[in-house]
Amino acid sequence: MRIVVDTNCLLASIPPQSPHFWLYEAFEKEAFDWVISNEIVSEYEEKLTEFYSPKTAHLVLSILMVAPNTIFAEPYFRWQLIEQDSDDNKFADLAIAGSVDFLVTNDRHFNSLKQLDFPKVEVVTLQEFKDILKFK
What we know:
Number of helices: 6
Distance between the termini: 18 Å
CATH superfamily: 5'-nuclease
Radius of gyration: 14 Å
Mean pLDDT: 88
CATH topology: Rossmann fold
Oligomer: single chain
């Protein structure tokens, strides 16, 4: 199973005491493949540094970059599907280019994708993804 993870879900899954730490644990157990692009890695780095620290950002990105279930992909077409927050389009574009099963986000801006027949992007919340994985 291949997924794209929005930054808000990554940030929520970092602290071991977080109720969303299961995302990291599932990734570590290779329960899914995490699809990333250069543009998304840059945003991850920026937000991790802003919310946590440069050291945490480096650690998280180091793990993500070398994990066997990380897939690097680059979208070569910009669909411009999300009008409410154009910065979110990089995630939708990667989901399409990377042929992912799910785009995991808790951001309501992505709900507009649920109305599209083409291109189809399956958007789920972090909790919905946990239910799909049947992860404890």
